[in-house]
Amino acid sequence: MSTDTTAIGNLNNETTNTRRVEPPVNVYVRIRPFIGDELARGESQNMLCIRDEKRIAVKLYPTATNNIRPAQTSYNEYEVTRIFDHNCTQQELFEQILEQPTDEIFTGSNWLLCTLGLTNSGKTHTMFGTPKDPGLIPQCLQRIFLHIGYNIDAKVLYKPDGLENLVQTNMNNLQDEINYRKYIFKDDKDDYRRNHLQNIVQDQPSILDDHSVEDEHYSVWISFFELYNENVFDLLIKPSAMKKRKPLRLMQNNESTIIKDLVQIPVFDLKEAEDTIRFGYSNRATSKTDLNEASSRSHAVLCITLITFDEFEEEPTMSHM
């Protein structure tokens, strides 16, 4: 069996002199069932032994003889936050490890989820899944938009400025986002999504100057990039620009690290979010073909940014998943 290790951590930094009640990072192990040629070869699970829901033992048998001294079988036991065996469903996994963090981004918390594992260990299935059996990312997005309901920010009053700051929008500083949406949704049969943001700016310019709101409103922004050979490359650029794409610059100050010129897309519903991610994912597949990037050397990073504001708060809040 192959294992997929998933780690999730809260990114809100806290300084305290007392011992942490909860660990700074939760580590989950998911064991996938045998597939294809593994079944044909009759592979067994003897190397893994689940002691309980938090402890797993790994037994490695010697693969070659040693003429100097007998090769020893190694036995190691590990303790993690939770172990999920091959019977765990995508829905169960989401409910156990990501449902609560998804809810907490609405209170200003930031969360990081990452998967570690060998090629073919199940990372992509765990994160993306299939249309009939969605993984953690689509379930996370679905819960976010279910929570938002009709309270989406239809005026686009604020936009992220990097990953740490946000600014009020005006008729001039949304032009890049208008262009991004035009090529991301270029295959739509009609112009509604391509021109949605442009129509907000052109047809209702006065609302961009009116930052009064009633109740609570939210805007969702998507960025998608990959790390390759210690460089950052955007996955939400035009497909025609993929071959000549340039690495993005990491800029640091005393408070944060900024990825300069990172594309961030405002999305107004679940379908737009899913299609934006699908666009970036297809760019990643293209980059692997064109640049011979092996999956083990290229690491994709998806960021969901939530901006929350209401009539009772002086400043909006921004959080990331």
UniProtKB/TrEMBL annotation:
Compartments, as annotated in UniProt: Cytoplasm, Cytoskeleton
Keywords: ATP-binding, Cytoplasm, Cytoskeleton, Motor protein, Nucleotide-binding
GO CC terms, sorted: mitotic spindle; spindle microtubule
GO biological process, one term: spindle elongation
InterPro entries: KIF11-like, Kinesin_motor_dom, Kinesin_motor_dom_sf, P-loop_NTPase
Amino-acid positions noted as binding ATP in the UniProt annotation, renumbered to this chain: 117-124
GO molecular function: ATP binding; microtubule binding; plus-end-directed microtubule motor activity
Pfam family, one: Kinesin
Transmembrane regions: none
Major localization listed first in the record, in broad terms: cytoplasm
Listed PROSITE patterns: KINESIN_MOTOR_2
Family (UniProt): Belongs to the TRAFAC class myosin-kinesin ATPase superfamily. Kinesin family.
Name of the protein: Kinesin motor domain-containing protein
Species whose genome carries this gene: Rotaria sordida
Taxonomic lineage of the native organism: Eukaryota, Metazoa, Spiralia, Gnathifera, Rotifera
